[in-house]
Design a protein that fits this description.
Layout: E1 8-16, E2 20-25, E3 37-40, H1 47-59, E4 63-74, E5 79-88, E6 102-107, H2 108-112, H3 114-117, H4 127-137
Length: 139
């Protein structure tokens, strides 16, 4: 019999201001790992609204120009990660400690020096790293 398992939509986003990217880390992650922000889409909201809401809820940063980038299935949990980029319009970070352990703005140079500072980016096969690497390649 055909089966159609539940798949929950989630947004994952690279927020930037041109020169800096906003990255965060969950308390349960490996020490020093920073990644793009992400969260689940709520019923009745557009994907773009979910991006703006999640960024604001987690960091108190407002965004504009939310643009779709790519997607990636994420089987554990059963999610479809929908990747976006967004431009920050506010810059002061005030994290929600229930959501994140830390969040910070990183320049391209900060990211290049991550190994020296005990920080690292997500694994190579992740959409988060694809989003970060594309931003890093821009000048």
């Amino acid at each position: 019999a055909p089966q159609f398992p539940r798949t929950d939509p989630a947004v994952i986003m690279l927020v930037h201001d041109g020169d800096r990217a906003l990255l965060g880390r969950q308390k349960i992650w490996a020490p020093g790992m920073y990644s793009t922000l992400a969260g689940f889409v709520e019923p009745g909201e557009t994907l773009e609204e979910a991006v703006a809401r999640e960024v604001y809820e987690e960091t108190n940063v407002r965004v504009r120009d939310v643009v779709y980038h790519s997607s990636q299935p994420w089987p554990f949990p059963a999610s479809l990660m929908l990747g976006y980029r967004a431009v920050a319009t506010t810059f002061d970070i005030n994290i929600d400690p229930e959501e994140l352990g830390d969040a910070a703005w990183f320049t391209r140079e900060d990211i290049a020096r991550m190994p020296e500072t005990g920080k690292r980016l997500p694994r190579p096969a992740s959409i988060a790293l694809w989003l970060i690497n594309e931003w890093l390649a821009e000048t």
